[in-house]
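Researcher: Please predict.
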Amino acid sequence: MAEEKHDFQRSLGLMDATAIVAGSMIGSGIFIVSADMGRMVGSAGWLLVLWLLTGLITLMAALSYGELAGMMPKAGGQFVYIEKAWGKFTAFLYGWTVFTVIQTGVIAAVAVAFAKYTAYFFPELGPDHILLSLGNFEISAAQVLAIASIFLLTFINSRGIKSGKIIQLVFTSAKLLALLALIVLGLAIGLKGDVFSQNMSHMWDAAPTWISSDGGKNWTESISPITGVALMLALGTAIIGSLFSSDAWNNVTFIAGEIKNPKKNIPLSLLLGTSIVTVLYVLANLAYLALIPLHGSPDGTDIMSQGIQFAGAGTDRVGTAAASQVFGDFAAGFMAILIMVSTFGCNNGLILSGARVYYAMAEDGLFFKRAAQLNKNSVPYFSLMIQAVWASVLCLSGSYGDLLDYATFASLIFYIITIAGIFKLRIKEPKAERPYKVIAYPFTPALYILLATTICVILLITKTQNTLIGLLIVSLGIPVFFIRNYYAKKNNAA
């Protein structure tokens, strides 16, 4: 008896697609990375510029992807676009990197963040509670909880796209409302004081704070004013934090096969989702600057003396520090719940969408054959499971912090490649149907490529080791591709 064929069900509307864009973008980053960015630039004005620039870069990319999404409303999204423009080899390298680090690495990091904040209410589930120790290899309760959350979301999404849709809508709505509450109350309270005016009094005086320590006991602090090239390098390095916090907006393209009227709704959801998140992120940082001094000391004993730079006694928990100024004793609990909601909803979007890339790869013979099969609920069950397994391995690796650097740099490379494909396809297929054309072509995609390439070059200079490892992960896909081709040809010949 022939196996029943299942197809994707187009059951996601514009609101659902927008929730996936916004929900996948908002994780824990917005509540943490401003501290490190503040240390790198030491300027309130430049900090805000970085968040605005990140929003601009993200919006230009989203507008560019809208044209490709309208042309190719298929499951797999970015993988499909790259294959169409640049061929199977480049597409495979993208899919390989998505599987090894871009999607799974971020899923692992976000899951661990969820577990760490859950430990606020249940300390026995924290990273310090070691369940198994074998030499230098340890498994903590937080890692087990992170893995459990990944498999729970994987199971929910294996039940059908509607199950994942409900989770995404509920959790995205909850974290948008909570973040908005923090912003509105933070600005209302903060602007009554003089912290904001003090932060803005020398808003363009960039002075990074460099910290070294001896076992966490003897702190030394150096503040060095910078301009010119040094400032550009600092900005290019610092923006990696805001770019990570704004990443994963493209995940909606992966599920194009399940979106109603995708030629219209995908471009529109990209525009709406990225715009909403950009506005919220800039406002959140304005609230931080209204409530807390930018400059601080690692030896500070309270929020005002630690500043944004050393919020949470060096833990970078800017969001929690800001919430403390608004909610008092309830702040820590409020932020823990908000970040739990944010990370859980974020991972739902990442898990839901990522599996569709492996499905598209498998359909082209570039991944495990079983990954191209849909279960009775019309979702790629095998793709979901193999993604969960590898993300769990990365959770156990303990290297999820570094994975974010690798993933962000690799993502930028493939964003550049994908958007460059717009120019190639305009020449190669000038008469192809384009329900939506990128605004201000060729300026918009060209400017994105220029800005993203500049950031990549700066990162190669300032974060050489991590960026080279990111490139190494991408390049490891080259021998895998040719080995796969060799055996594929051998099997066909036989």
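Model: The first strand starts at residue 130 and ends at 134.
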